[in-house]
């Protein structure tokens, strides 16, 4: 079994009015970082590829500040289809995707479908390393530790850039190493046992947002007129919510 530690970066619409959200692909992948580990958690290969955007061709300033990626970097990069071809070459044998939160695997499948590529080439099994780290630290259900905090707790040296599969890989190895030290092989197997990803393709909504009614409702609630900035924020929040990007499962999973 191989473990594919993957980290994705996304670009998105600038705002609700100036650059409309594409509901079929609200978050466009612009970078894929990857570390491939063997069954003993040794690094086999790595990958770090920028992707030229096709939908949101202006880089969101928040994304640029967060990642340090520039539009000039992206304009000289490969297309998603080209990078996807490079990516799938690394999925040999039984591969398990390891992600920091399930949003990365959701968007990987969604971007793949959008570009008309074969999702069957992607691993179906995955491990949410963030959830496993939170479980290891005995955090309450629904509370997930951040990557920066996790590196401190697990004593992993870092630089300023946390947008890298390296740290997820190191935490993954630390968790499994600590379990091995406990001398319980069953505990180790229980921890790293992957789930099967159930992909459900998002479709474009069949209804249209009635912005006037939405804004009127807020103005009634707060007994005042909304500013232009407030209307933009409300509209954007509504549209982002429709993408289901921030939904979490309430179904109890067996650990």
Automatic annotation (TrEMBL):
Q: Which domain of life is it from?
A: Bacteria
Q: What is a single Pfam family found in this protein's UniProt entry?
A: RNase_T
Q: Does the keyword Nuclease apply?
A: yes
The record ties this protein, via SMART domains, to: EXOIII
GO MF annotations for this entry? 3'-5'-RNA exonuclease activity; nucleic acid binding
Specify the Exonuclease domain's residue ranges: 2-181
Q: Quote the SUPFAM superfamilies the UniProt record gives.
A: Ribonuclease H-like
- Keywords of this entry: Exonuclease, Hydrolase, Nuclease
What's the name of the protein?
DNA polymerase III, epsilon subunit
What is the source species?
A: Clostridium intestinale DSM 6191
